[in-house]
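User: I'm writing a tutorial on reading structure tokens. Could you give me a worked example: one chain, its sequence, then its tokens, then a sentence or two explaining what the tokens reveal?
Assistant: Sure. Here is the example chain.
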Amino acid sequence: VKWKKSDVKFEDRFDKYLDPSFFQHRIHWFSIFNSFMMVIFLVGLVSMILMRTLRKDYARYSKEEEMDDMDRDLGDEYGWKQVHGDVFRPSSHPLIFSSLIGSGCQIFSVSFIVIVVAMVEDLYTERGSMLSTAIFVYAATSPVNGYFGGSLYAKQGGRRWIKQMFIGAFMIPAMVCGTAFFINFIAIYYHASRAIPFGTM
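And here are its predicted structure tokens:
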């Protein structure tokens, strides 16, 4: 091994790899199209199986409705009638349930928007640009959380909509910050170099 002295500073050693002209970034359109067609095929297959099952059950139920009470089979119900009590039963904790649904819709929209922006823009060329974009989009998509969570809470007959709004808004940040605090406490306990002082946190 022959070592050669370089004039590049230690802090700037990765700048050439972050330069967009260093690599020719190509979007693999064939792979994206292939994955998209695979998803469409699988969704079509599953929906076809479900529609066949539902059509059989619907035909059987409509035939049973035409019968009188003496001819009707009063045995065990089968098919979709077995789960209708569970599917359409209101949630036992509508406040938490609607907040989770609203937060999930917000995370889905944030993921989708960040992926689209990363495909259009070169977010990976600068340090921290992906994270700052995700934080900005998360703040901008808070109405998605409020709309889906609040509408579901109202459909279930909830009255404390202000409490639901606060729980939905603070659920994900509280979990992220709590996890970060817990990991940082462990790092402080072991005197790790990545530990952030408690006052700074």
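What the tokens reveal: The CA atoms of residues 15 and 85 lie 60 Å apart. The mean pLDDT is 83.
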